[in-house]
Amino acid sequence: MHPLDVVKTRFQIQRGKNDPSNYKSLRHCFRTIFQTEGLFGFYKGILPPILAETPKRAVKFFTFEQYKKLLGYAALSPPMTLAVAGLGSGLTEAIVVNPFEVVKVSLQANRDAFTEQPSTFAKAQQIIKDHGLGLSGLNKGLTATLGRHGVFNMVYFGFYFNVKRIIPANKDPTLEFLRKFGIGLVSGTIASIINIPFDVAKSRIQGPQPVPGEIKYRTCLKTMATVYKEEGFLALYKGLVPKIMRLGPGRLIFDSWSIGSSGAPVPKEKCNPETLSAHTDCISQIFSVQHMT
């Protein structure tokens, strides 16, 4: 699914419509990358998310459960509790993954041949040397990353478990798989549509600036306002198609794991979000979101 992430980033960082180097369509982008950068061009920036995967999963799972327990003392409905816990886990997760995202976007934005671009560690060292570890260096775009992960997790978890309560579970494993897959896919699509402006802002801040040496995109909301003013409303949704295209394969992998790991249908009372218990489906949703934001 990483090639789709590269394509998404390329669309998000291109500005205006008159630049001859702009990609004109999804097909044109795939063809151009393959012709000018080779097959490995689709795998630029793949190492940072791999390195971030384990700490990201650990932080998301641990904080989600902790926020959920803390919110259990508040007078919130179960779906609202899960949505707010998702927001909290997303914000915490964003702090962990942001440095990796800065390096990843820098590598993905590079249009040189794969063999000519710097390594992941060389790029990280260059960013630290030139700009430091702060909000102008290895942690630039943090506010946008907070928005991207926080909003996505809040919408996804809130919508998924609320709808899941309405649509009854099915005893047939195949139909139950399709139920979870469908709800998860719709949840991910809605969350992606809502959070993609934050994703665009993040790519603009972390990617190359229009004029070398001058910082045009600094903060999340200001970047959104600039993109809207200069390029129009739809520019805030650049990269939405490849982003949504990643959802299907991710859902298939993790819903298959969810059903397969249980060995049998999970009792209904254990799946009921009102119990706020840690069950297999809840864990699978936490893990599946990793590949959607």
List the helices and strands and how they pair.
Layout: H1 2-13, H2 26-37, H3 47-71, H4 78-109, H5 120-131, H6 142-166, H7 173-206, H8 220-231, H9 240-245, H10 247-262, H11 268-271, H12 280-288
Helix pairs in contact: 3-4, 4-5, 4-6, 6-7, 7-8, 7-10, 10-12
Provide tags for this entry.
single chain, 293 residues, mainly alpha, Mitochondrial carrier fold, 12 helices, 68% helix
Q: What does the model show?
A:
With 293 residues, the chain is mainly α. The protein has helices at 2-13, 26-37, 47-71, 78-109, 120-131, 142-166, 173-206, 220-231, 240-245, 247-262, 268-271, 280-288. The longest helix is centred in the middle third of the chain and has 34 residues, at 173-206. 42% of the residues are buried. The model is unreliable at 261-278 (pLDDT under 50).
Briefly summarize what is shown:
This protein has 293 residues and is an all-alpha fold. The chain has helices at 2-13, 26-37, 47-71, 78-109, 120-131, 142-166, 173-206, 220-231, 240-245, 247-262, 268-271, 280-288. The protein has one domain: Mitochondrial carrier fold (Alpha/alpha barrel), CATH 1.50.40.
Structural category: mainly alpha
The CATH architecture can be given as Alpha/alpha barrel
- The arrangement of helices and strands along the chain is HHHHHHHHHHHH
Instruction: Please tally the helical runs, counting DSSP H or I stretches of 4 or more residues.
Output: 12
Poorly predicted regions:
261-278
Question: How many strands, what sense, and barrel or not for the largest sheet?
Answer: none
**Cα-atom radius of gyration:** 20 Å
GO molecular function: alpha-ketoglutarate transmembrane transporter activity
InterPro entries: MCP_dom_sf, MCP_transmembrane, Mito_2-oxodicarb_carrier
Protein name: Mitochondrial 2-oxodicarboxylate carrier
Main location: mitochondrion
